[in-house]
Structure formats: C-alpha cells, structure tokens
Design a protein that fits this description.
15 strands; 1 helix; mainly beta; 15-stranded mixed β-sheet; 59% strand
Length: 204
C-alpha cells in the first residue's frame, strides 16, 4: 500500500498550493486513493477519496475543499452532487463523460487506468469533468492521451516500470508529460512526489 506525500504548485509560476498526504492500494473493487491536503501554512485544505472499479471507472468520488463538497460516480456518464459551504444548497450535475479529474495526482492514475494504453497504440481521446479549485466548480474538458514509452528501472526492491504519457488539452493544444509508476505519479506539471514510504502497487 503506497503511502507518501505530494507537493502541489502552480505549473506556471510555481507558487506552492498545498501538500497532499496520500495512501492508495488495489482492492476487491479495483483501486482506492485517500488523501488529506494541507495549505503552505499548515492548515487543513481539503481531502480526496476516490474508488475505481476493476475497469478504472469511478465507483465513488468524494472531494472537500474550502468547505465545498462534491460526491460523484459513473452513472449515465458521470453524475455528481456539489454542496455549498453552508450545506443549504446542493446542485446535481450529469455529463456524458468517461470520468472525473482535478488537481489531485489521483486523477492522473485513474485516467491512465481507465484508458489502459500501450506504447504502440494511437492517442486516445477522453472526456472528463474537472473540479477546479478553490470551490470545486465543474468544467468539462477533452484530452488526448498517448503512452510514449514504458521503461524498467532497477531499484532496491526490484525493477520498477515507469510509463511516460503525453497529455494534450484538445481545446488549447497545450501538451504536457506525465510519468507514472504503477499507482504513483512520479512527475507531472504542478506535482512533485516528495516522499514515498513503500513501492507503488502494480496494476495487473
């Protein structure tokens, strides 16, 4: 069960945004990721709880940020309920999309798991609902994912396979690279893996 800490920063000006203390593991249903976020000042900043089924679809998502809350799942595309800080109003949304995304590294692992790309495959288009900070506002985004290469690296715990993905935002054409090892993000724009207490889990 990987457990560790990511630092999150603005990918453009590198302003620190939060630290995300996480743990994740494959389970009977598929894969689960839970984390707590703290602000640069050390205050509680939010939380992420994401469970995928064995095909990589979101069985359950619960996000908290700035007293806002989102609960969602794959249902007729993806469906979610967003609750305001006072808890008096809740708005429901539904989009014909494949999954969710956001600032948490969990969503990069989830999208890669959903697509199951191979280095020889063509780029695959995916539609996601992104929940943007600080109020978890929903926004539909279209991306293209391609697995550029998979390389095995020797470690003290045996070989570690690192997958390099190229992700393209289809509305702007902006491209960036994501490096994953199993269910851990090694590097991505705005994300740094600062600490890892145990090796990543390998998806079968």
């Amino acid at each position: 069960m990987p457990r560790g800490r990511y630092s999150l920063h603005d990918p453009h000006d590198h302003t620190p945004l939060a630290e995300e203390h996480f743990q994740c593991a494959p389970g009977p249903s598929g894969w689960r990721y839970v984390s707590q976020l703290t602000s640069p000042a050390g205050n509680h900043h939010g939380s992420v709880d994401l469970t995928l089924d064995e095909l990589g679809r979101p069985l359950r998502l619960e996000l908290h940020a700035a007293a806002w809350q989102v609960r969602g799942a794959a249902l007729d595309g993806v469906t979610w309920v967003r609750t305001d800080p006072t808890g008096t109003e809740a708005t429901e949304g539904n989009v014909r999309a494949h999954a969710f995304t956001g600032t948490s590294p969990a969503f990069l692992v989830a999208t890669a798991r959903l697509l199951r790309l191979t280095p020889s495959a063509a780029a695959t288009r995916v539609r996601l609902v992104a929940f943007t900070d600080p109020v978890l506002a929903p926004r539909t985004v279209d991306q293209s994912w391609a697995l550029l290469k998979s390389e095995a690296h020797a470690t003290d715990n045996g070989p570690l396979t690192v997958d390099e993905y190229q992700v393209t935002a289809l509305d702007t054409g902006e491209q960036h690279t994501v490096h994953l090892a199993g269910d851990v993000v090694l590097a991505a724009p705005g994300i740094e893996l600062e600490d890892l207490e145990s090796p990543p889990s390998a998806f079968t």
